């Protein structure tokens, strides 16, 4: 993934290939600034500065000797990191994976009333039907037909 910072709104991330991009055409997505508590733009900027990364993969493994690798993190590495942090939070690690980040983002975006089409821009879903499950989960009790009847 390559990034181009565009303060103050956020940064653009170019994803060269993914499992949903079998032809490796790549895609550019926008990553918006967050709050002062959790801002992905500031976090990535801090990481790039601390790691001294000026080109190549943004997210890289750190060797057992503490050196930064030039390779990118694998999907298995991301899953292991998510599981480790879930465990640190005293959550059951077996319920978490790299996909948990994706699912959480979409569920919270839907709950916040964000546009499904803008969500698709970020998630790179090609079909509204595929994304529908995340939205339905987030809106399970919204305007529920049985609310307030009893």
In short:
The protein is built from five helices and three strands.
What would you say this structure looks like, in words?
- This protein is α+β, with helices and mostly antiparallel strands.
- Helix content is 39%, strand content 11%.
- The chain folds into two domains: 1-58, no CATH class; 74-142, no CATH class.
- A three-stranded antiparallel sheet has the order 1-2-3, with no helix packed on it.
- Helix 3 crosses helix 5 (128-138).
- It is globular and about 60 Å long.
- The protein starts with a strand and ends in a 12-residue tail after the last helix.
- The model has no long low-confidence stretch (mean pLDDT 85).
Features:
150 residues, alpha+beta, 2 domains, three-stranded antiparallel sheet
Number of helices: 5
Distance between the termini: 52 Å
| Oligomeric nature of the chains | single chain
Relative strand content: 5-15%
Overall structural class, as computed from helix and strand content, comes to alpha+beta
């Amino acid at each position: 993934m390559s990034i181009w910072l565009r303060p103050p709104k956020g940064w653009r991330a170019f994803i060269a290939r993914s499992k949903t991009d079998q032809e490796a055409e790549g895609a550019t997505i926008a990553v918006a600034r967050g709050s002062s508590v959790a801002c992905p733009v500031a976090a990535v900027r801090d990481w790039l500065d601390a790691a001294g990364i000026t080109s190549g993969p943004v997210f890289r493994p750190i060797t057992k000797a503490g050196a930064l690798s030039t390779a990118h993190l694998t999907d298995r590495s991301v899953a292991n990191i998510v599981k480790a942090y879930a465990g640190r939070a005293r959550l059951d690690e077996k319920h978490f994976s790299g996909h948990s980040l994706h699912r959480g983002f979409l569920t919270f975006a839907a709950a916040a009333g964000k546009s499904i089409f803008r969500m698709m821009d970020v998630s790179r879903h090609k079909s509204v039907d595929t994304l529908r499950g995340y939205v339905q989960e987030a809106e399970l009790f919204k305007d529920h037909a049985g609310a307030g009847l009893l």
